[in-house]
């Protein structure tokens, strides 16, 4: 019964004062989900931005992740305590395991313990394919709420999405705009649809994912792009055009993660 926004602000590669200022701008422009990780080394700055925003804590959804440095039950418990201190919060809305590790089941057991204690409201994973996801299910007591993975119009991960949906696990997309690897603004199909809907190519790509029930966490250092990215809830792509966009999927990762 936990609600979270369909779009969030990604903070990969944001550091120091710049991170604090950008997260504050994101919050001021309507974002209510902030995604980070212990690996990003910016939890302190995000905590400061949240305090400065004067937005009620319960109105902001915070995601962080435990990573390879926390690859055991005890280390994961310590990592969560560290994140609570760094973010300066009493609880974290969602904690993910950054990627599959040899001791993922022990790490997830630690997340479950803190979830039962109320220090974490929900738990999940990141970068898990079907094989790793179903292996974890055999070991866990709580089904992961989210699997955060690479997903965009060129790599929608339909099979994984179907697998997750069977367990009522939500897919959340990192790199939903391909992180600059693809030139979306000059893509012929995206150009046509952008003109048709009076939106940008980037808004078309984000809206496509959301209409497929995939949450998105785009990141940017430009405030005008923050505003552009979040303004995607005033239109719908029709079924015919959704099919056209689906045909852009060549099922190939752009980041060689999988």
Q: Order of strands in the sheet with the most strands?
A: 1-2-3-4-5-6-7-8
**Could you estimate the helical fraction of the residues in percent?**
40-55%
Task: List the total number of helices.
Answer: 10
What structural class do you assign from the helix and strand content? Answer: alpha/beta
Strand content of the residues, in percent?
5-15%
Q: How much is the average pLDDT?
A: 96
Low-confidence stretches: none
Number of strands: 8
Radius of gyration based on Cα positions: 18 Å
Q: Give the biggest beta sheet.
A: 8 strands, parallel
Spatial shape: globular
Note the gap between the termini: 31 Å
Give me the strand/helix succession: EHEHEHEHEHEHEHHEHH
Polypeptide structure, described:
- The protein is α/β, with parallel strands linked by helices and 258 residues long.
- The protein has helices at 16-28, 43-53, 73-87, 104-117, 130-137, 158-166, 188-197, 201-211, 223-230, 239-246, and strands at residues 9-10, 33-35, 61-66, 92-97, 120-126, 146-150, 170-174, 214-216.
- The longest helix has 15 residues, at 73-87.
- The chain contains ten helices and eight strands.
- Helix content is 41%, strand content 14%.
- An eight-stranded parallel β-sheet has the order 1-2-3-4-5-6-7-8.
- The model has no long low-confidence stretch (mean pLDDT 96).
């Amino acid at each position: 019964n936990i609600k979270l926004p369909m779009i969030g602000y990604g903070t990969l590669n944001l550091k120091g004062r710049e991170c604090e200022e950008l997260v504050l701008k994101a919050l001021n422009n309507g974002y209510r989900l902030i995604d980070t990780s212990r690996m990003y080394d910016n939890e302190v700055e995000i905590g400061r931005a949240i305090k400065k925003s004067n937005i009620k804590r319960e109105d902001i959804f915070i995601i962080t992740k435990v990573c390879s440095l926390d690859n055991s039950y005890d280390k994961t418990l310590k990592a969560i305590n560290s994140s609570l201190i760094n973010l300066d919060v009493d609880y974290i809305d969602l904690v993910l395991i950054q990627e599959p590790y040899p001791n993922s089941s022990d790490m997830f057991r630690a997340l479950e313990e803190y979830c039962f204690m109320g220090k974490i409201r929900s738990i999940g994973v990141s970068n898990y394919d079907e094989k790793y996801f179903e292996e974890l299910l055999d070991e866990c007591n709580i089904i992961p709420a989210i699997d955060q993975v690479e997903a965009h119009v060129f790599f929608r991960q339909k099979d994984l999405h179907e697998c997750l949906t069977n367990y009522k696990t939500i897919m959340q997309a990192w790199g939903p705009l391909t992180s600059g690897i693809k030139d979306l603004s000059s893509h012929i199909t995206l150009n046509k649809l952008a003109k048709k809907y009076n939106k940008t190519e980037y808004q078309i790509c984000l809206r496509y994912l959301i209409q497929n029930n995939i949450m998105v966490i785009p990141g940017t250092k430009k405030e005008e792009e923050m505003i552009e990215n979040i303004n995607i809830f005033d239109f719908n792509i029709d079924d015919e055009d959704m099919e056209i966009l689906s045909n852009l999927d060549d099922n190939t990762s752009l980041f060689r993660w999988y």
